[in-house]
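BUG: 3D viewer hangs when loading the predicted structure for this chain

Environment: internal workstation, default settings.
Expected: structure renders.
Actual: progress bar stalls at 90%.

Input used:
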Amino acid sequence: MVEVPESLPARMYLLAYDLRKQRMTSGGARLGYVLRAAALTELYLDGRLGEERRGPVPGTPGDDPYGVLAQIAASRPRSWRHWVRKDARPIVAAVREELVRGGWIRVRSRRVLGVVPRREVAVKDPRVVKSLWGGASSALRGRPVAHVNSYDAAAVALAAAGELKTVLPGRDRRRHRRRIEELTARTGPAAPAVKKVIRQKRAAAASG
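Structure tokens produced before the viewer hung:
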């Protein structure tokens, strides 16, 4: 059995990697939203976050690897969407470094045309990504929703909300819409918040 990262944000980062093209297919703010939501979802599923008035609140004390819980504890009540948007870009770098330290990926920096800096990510063992994809695929098509592993359910919910085509191409999101809704309901409010944030950003871009 192939070992995979324990953290949900690390898993979602690897699921955004396209094995065929050997590169990340999502980056910047959108990937950041997915990773922030993954961190929120992990805390929610473990009971370290609860919900009051449609926003996250601290729950049972515990690990806070990305500092999200501390941010929420120090803030006035805010929506899930606010916490999905906040520090979306920094968490991409934090998760990437976590995966480098863990030996899951290599990162090479170079300059495009000798000017524009770019980081090229390579997964060291493609079987890890295949295993994560297999878990998500099984959650989408396999056993009853109540029996699906919570992180696999979350992977589907977050991939659908963040439009990660490596996991769920548009046609699969449409075909399995009911199942995705059921899996999303199991994983808490962060995934729906990602969907709303992306819709708002798209609408703002269209009106601008």
